[in-house]
Amino acid sequence: MPKRLFSVGLLTLGLTLTFGTAQAQSGILKLPLINDPIMNPVIAPDLGSVLINKVIFSGLVRPNEDLLPEPDLAKSWTITNSGLVYTFTLRNDVKWHDGKPFTAADVVFTFKAATDPKSGSRLVSDFSSIKTVVAVNPTTVKFTLSRPFAPFLTLLGHNAGILPKHLLDGKPLNDATAFNRMTPIGTGPFKVTRVVPGASITLEANKDYYGNKPKLAGMVFKVVPDINAQVAQLRSGELDWVNVEPNNIASLQNDPNITLKQANAVQHFLVFFNQKNPLFAPAKIRESMQYAVNRKAIIDGVLKGYADYPTGTLPTALKKYYDKTIKPIQYDPARAKALLAQAGWKPDAKGQLVNAKGEPFKFTLIVDRGNPSREQAALAVQQDLKKIGMDVTLQPLEFATLVRDYLLPGKYDANLIWWTTPPDPDQYSFYATGQDNNNAFFSNSKADDLLKRGRETADVAQRQKIYNEFQRLEMTNPPVLVLYYPKELQAIRKNLSGVPDLGIRDALRRSEDFQLK
Amino acid sequence: MTLSYLLKRVFHALIVLIMVGVITFFVVRLAPGGPSLLADPKLSAVERQAIEERLGLNDTLPVQFTKWAGQTARGNLGNSFLYGAPTVDIIMTRLPNTLILAGTSLLLTLVVALPLGLASGMRPGSAFDRITSTVSLVFVAVPVFWFGLLLIILFAVTWRLLPAGGMNTAGQEGNLGDLLRHLILPAVVLSAASIAEILRYTRSSTRTVTTQDYVRTARAKGVGQWALRYRHILRNAAIPILTAVGLQLPRLIGGAAITETIFGWPGMGRLSVEAALGRDYPLIMGITLFVALAVVAFNLLIDLLYPWLDPRVRAEG
């Protein structure tokens, strides 16, 4: 009997192997997700959801290749009442994926839900400036803001996909499980045709799309939780585009079918120094950190060079606002020691930094566990600070624990973390006194004033001036220690073309131009 | 096997389940951190509060416990935080996938491990025995994620023979050939360790049995090789093997977290990882209770199988 079983097994194996592999699916782009997404842009909680939503849902505007807003669902707009009233004229040729016409009522519905925390919205703070939103007629929407808010257009083109009122009206967005998980309806270039929980989401080109006709026949978002498995699937042709970490590059560099591209990411990686802790309150101490940490070594060693060297908290990706005239601060431990001495910290006989009372400069640096780049960067920071006599303990923690139990309650000394921001220089909520995301408790009245004026000023030249001033202030009174501006590393199969030079988030908003040969 | 014995066992099972539920409830909630939905440092205080309210996390722990206990007693395991859908529904969509993978690897395990274990147990010390012993030692020791990635790189990347992951090619769901091709690698990885384990059990159990008088008698009266092996030896060596297989079953139902994650297999194991990482309390509770139920049920089933396999147990029992 076992003999027969064995031969049956061999037969099956042979049969299945002769089926051949990777049936060529022409024109179907395959992208990875790490878990099932929520296909609703207003409540999407993670990057995977944000990405798939970019191709299903359109916004009023979208970022062009310079990350500036260009028309999308809105044909045109006017800004009046010194930046308080935005009036959008909508396209009249747009249909939802279920065939119903798109109107101003959908826009009003979307932003009412987006500004209501009870709906489960993740965009409440993005759009807290909206006072009223009304449909003037089916193709005209008028937003009235409670204060001038320069990033408004950029934020409209960022994550604010428009939702269909006729399918979602009447209950919190969070409760629309069927829509969010199985049958989302948008106006974007691709529509969902099939969802296999835990496995894949299949989309086909939207033939009624109002813009350029999509060149791809469709897309498949596959759930592949493990990054090494994603890389393997990219190499075997089962995925077409995977964003990778610097430590994955070695296995991809020599693959003739794969291109490695760098894209700008609007991110800054940083160390929070908790300024409620008297140790970090003086600006001199934080200034000295910029000399004490060898950031070039971190970029070259840990990130294999795939990052830009930092000045302040505005990353180089914000081309229009990043002040190129500021000279970045280079590694200079002697200078760091001199600054620390001015602040009252001098090395004792053993080389340990102590203050007048003989207390050591001692603190704990926390970092999230599991990401090799961040763990290694944290280790480098610890070692550099040890070299100038600080007593630094490194403590890796699970991300959720780090955020909930340490960062948000302010119960930490120092924390290596990162911010991903919309493509706008507004950093009011991060670095103005008492704001929600100011987890380092930085407080400086001049910075507050600049950040407030920056978000209220629409004129680009004036805004540039304001943010240049802010960046200069940061060099001597840094709110945080910025470590680097990372590049997004895109590993793409060579037969995929038409991808703009943008980060994947913004590139996917132009997915109708993607093409597979 | 009386009815009262069965009732007693069911009653015990119920107590075990309640204890598992209560302990898990407090362990997951008292662990540091919290639901990943709240772990976004960018959330404003207002957004955070709305989420906590919706998930029922703003109540005190005793209130949360009372609510949960009342709900569970009425058979409602609640909605998953991450999926927003009833926990039971989510488990039920993943369970068949795990059963396919687990069933295949169990079959593979038995088909490979039993004959090999029997053969090496009958000739201990032979070259064949030494080879199988060494190979099984290697498979017990090799880390699953490494072995999985190795097979992916060889079979999917280098030789392009098999798909690197997933359960179906998208759009090919229901195509048996496609499913089988996706099944081979994860099933091999998942069964590698259990083949080695069951092989060792079979080998030692066989060794004990082959020296028994009745085997010698059977051999002396000229029983054929196959009949000797499968009717006389394997049947008598079966009890410890059955126990070992029984111990594997709950692990198979609970899903193989690492194998399913590496191969992107949409089963229970990956669901548990997702639930644990996301601190999806209702889903963690649901999966734990479900697996506990499976363990209890399988133990009962194995106990009921013993007397059928071995009349001596029946006589004593």
TrEMBL record, chain A:
Residues 69-438 form the Solute-binding protein family domain. SUPFAM superfamilies: Periplasmic binding protein-like II (SSF53850). Keywords: Signal, Transport. Residues 1-24 form the signal peptide. Pfam families: SBP_bac_5. Belongs to the bacterial solute-binding protein 5 family. PANTHER family: OLIGOPEPTIDE-BINDING PROTEIN APPA, PERIPLASMIC BINDING COMPONENT OF ABC TRANSPORTER. This is ABC transporter substrate-binding protein. It comes from Deinococcus arenicola.
From TrEMBL, chain B:
Its main location: membrane. PROSITE patterns: ABC_TM1. It is a multi-pass membrane protein. It is found in: Cell membrane. The keyword Cell membrane applies. CDD domains: TM_PBP2 (cd06261). InterPro entries: BPD_transp_1_N, MetI-like, MetI-like_sf. Residues 95-302 form the ABC transmembrane type-1 domain. The chain crosses the membrane at residues 12-31, 99-119, 131-159, 179-199, 237-263, 283-306. It comes from the Bacteria. It holds the Pfam family BPD_transp_1_N. The keyword Transmembrane helix applies. Keywords: Cell membrane, Membrane, Transmembrane, Transmembrane helix, Transport. Gene3D superfamilies: MetI-like. Belongs to the binding-protein-dependent transport system permease family. This is ABC transporter permease. It comes from Deinococcus arenicola.
